[in-house]
Design brief:
Number of helices: 11
Largest sheet: 6 strands, mixed
Number of strands: 17
Bound molecules: manganese (II) ion
Radius of gyration: 19 Å
Distance between the termini: 54 Å
Length: 321
């Protein structure tokens, strides 16, 4: 029996507006919603015929995380928006949730790096502990993806084998606990969908990237062409050095990769830090993270239900420093 994607998006694709990573930019989000024709009715943003899809990453980094969560949750609960898990919600939940059978431990260890990722969120909720606990319980029940016959949405990577194999679109309580073991199947699956394909550079090499960090890993693309060399695969943060990029891929590595075919329904992502004028990354794939929290743009895609992503359908607002 062929497993199927669970269709959990019950709104016509031609009447959906997909919005990228918010990261606490609540005022910018309000400006974008107004630009898209949404207005506040009874305290909640809505549109006469359209609904929003948020691709996740509402929390961390930005100035108004509490306000952004409130605005998004009110829309979701009023039925005017959908929201999926981003890697930052996954991180916040795991960082803040005690391990049920390992006293004193959390589902994600409190290392300096893990603490830094969630620090801004915890600081803004310092006087709202009960409210934050309630948001965590709410986040734990969010779907990992949205799909119908016309479109798909996931934060970082559409891996069909993982999605079809999971059965449920959400993370069960025991699967959340499995996140404490990064090598577990559940942890690997959730990481693939929310953080994408993260690969080591070959031969233990490292490279200096444009932001001054020495990196040993890179973010890989998952759209055509089918990769043969490292250059075909590397997407971020920077182009690979030529001597690395021209190396053929290890066949073992190829087995773990996925390619989202151009005949598949249009797919919407966040996660990858893009800049410049928004445009599709493939004919049927739009990434909507244009670095709002780094004073880039907060971007949306106004879907028309068509198979091909149209550059004219992007709508954005600039972020004022
Ligand atoms: Mn993000």
């Amino acid at each position: 029996m062929t497993l199927q994607v669970q269709y959990n998006l019950d709104h016509d694709a031609a009447r959906l507006d997909v919005i990228g990573d918010i990261h606490g930019c609540a005022l910018t989000l309000e400006r974008l919603l107004i630009k898209l024709g949404y207005s506040k009715r009874r305290g909640v943003y809505s549109h006469p015929s359209r609904k929003i899809v948020f691709v996740g990453d509402i929390v961390d980094r930005g100035p108004r995380i509490r306000q952004a969560l409130a605005l998004v949750r009110e829309m979701v609960e009023a039925g005017t928006a959908y929201l999926i898990l981003g890697n930052h919600e996954v991180h916040a939940y795991c960082y803040c949730t005690a391990h049920p059978s390992a006293p004193g431990n959390y589902l994600r260890p409190h290392t300096p790096r893990n603490t830094a990722i969630v620090a801004e969120t915890l600081e803004q909720f310092a006087n709202y502990n009960d409210e934050w606990s309630d948001y965590l319980r709410w986040m734990a029940r969010l779907p990992l993806y949205l799909a119908n016959e016309q479109m798909r949405v996931v934060h970082a990577c559409w891996d069909a084998a993982i999605i079809e194999g999971r059965g449920s679109d959400t993370v069960s309580p025991s699967q959340w606990v499995a996140m404490a073991d990064p090598g577990s199947d559940d942890a690997q699956a959730i990481k693939r969908l929310t953080s994408g394909i993260d690969l080591p550079l070959p031969n233990n090499t490292s490279m200096l990237s444009a932001d001054g960090y020495r990196r040993t890993r890179f973010r890989a693309r998952f759209w055509p062409p089918v990769p043969e060399h490292y250059n075909d695969l590397a997407f971020q943060p920077d182009p690979l050095p030529p001597e690395i990029g021209s190396l053929p891929l290890d066949p073992k590595l190829l087995e773990r990769l996925v390619v989202y075919d151009s005949a598949e329904p249009p797919l919407f992502l966040g996660h990858y830090w893009l800049s410049g004028t928004p445009e599709p990354v493939a004919s049927n794939i739009a990434c909507l993270d244009y670095g709002a929290v780094r004073f880039g743009r907060l971007a949306a895609y106004r879907h028309d239900g068509k198979q091909t992503v149209n550059p004219d359908n992007y709508v954005w607002v600039y972020v004022d420093p």
